[in-house]
Amino acid sequence: MFNFNINTKLNMKFLFTLLSLAITCTAFGQITITNSNMPGSHDTIRYSAATPTTINYDTTGAGVTWDFSNLTPTSQGLYEYKPGLLINPIYSAFFGLTSYGRLVTDSISLGIATIKNIYDFYQNSTNAFKAVGRGLSYQGIPIPSNYSDDDEIYQFPLNYTDHDSSTFEVSFDLTTTLQLFQKGYRISDVDGWGTVITPHGTYNCIRIVSSIYEHDSLVINGFALPGFDRVSREIKWLSTNEKIPVVEVDGSVVNNTFTPNTLRYRDSWIQCLATTPAINFTADHTTGYPSETFLFSNTSGCALGYQWSFSPNTIAYLNGTSNTSAEPAVQFTHSGDYTAHLNAYNAAGLDSLVRTAYIHILSPAGIADEGNNTPAFQLLSDPVNNSIRCISNNTTSTRLSIFSSTGALLLQQDVPKGAQAISLNTSSWSAGLYLVRLTGEQGFNSQKLIIR
What is the pLDDT of residues 370-379, one digit of tens each? Predict the structure, then answer.
């Protein structure tokens, strides 16, 4: 009985190990894409667009981890697989009530003719997901046509190392005298599998690379014009969890060189891409000396990029920051008042914030009688009543600032336009030397004040 229990436990442990390995292989091994993983009619799936040059799309093979988690969205869009009736009733009548299509490109210029709103209409079967019809607009008129040779986008099942090719052809009577012919072939290779990490999630994927060779030609009154040749490439990471590519890089091929033009990845709705930035910033302090570092905190919401500027431009960016950093470190190299200006932008627009005379840089010696005599003011001390009076005839709004002999800002307040006099109680001030500054749009003026 004792030996039986030991063997039972060993067998159970062995079976548990096998089960764990099976689960691990299922979770992290190769996947197979079938027609059940394809989009259908009424599917509306969101993606984000990003700059295609920000990722390494060349790495491939078995068990690869593609880490695209640092992708920054620049805009968003939808893959909309619409019934033909919702695209145009003409398409529904031509392709049938169960037909569904997607906008594949906005327009193609063919020299003497430009076609617009090109939709492909699909059929999904156990063997292939393919385009069986195409609709386009010429001079505002929708024109449908069936493929005489279907474009087989995916041939099922799709597994690692699969290779396939197919031809396609479709033609249109644009007018009674003008015909358009589009034909070509597609070569596809499943050249990798592994894990893809994006800002939206982590997926088990296969990678499929398709090169599409297309020839477009026009025929006028039976006379064929010179055709237009295009070579494009699609690199797609497909998952069993999504009905569109988890990541897709599209571009053109010229002289065997691939140039990526677009990058899309499956994503959720991002409010900031539909809302202009709500801009705001502060500095860790606003008064100091030329040798000090000022750290700017940026609390702007929904921004994808920044542009800082300061006036006057006698500044230096420190700690590896620049005028495009979100939170720059800045040194102001001359004494005076500086205006800070920040632009923030995203795909929805631009916002701007200016803080006039925001940074006050004192002379390295501490108290100094500096300024350009604009705006002019008179400072009167009243030791009997422990007060001072600042008298000015300012024509614009100004700011009154008072600094200690060490350069510390003690008081600051805005002075309305046309104010004749401001009285300040100095009874709590220590005896010593102070600097009183009045700052306006055209400059500033400073005067020394001695409290005895």
Answer: 555 566 777 7
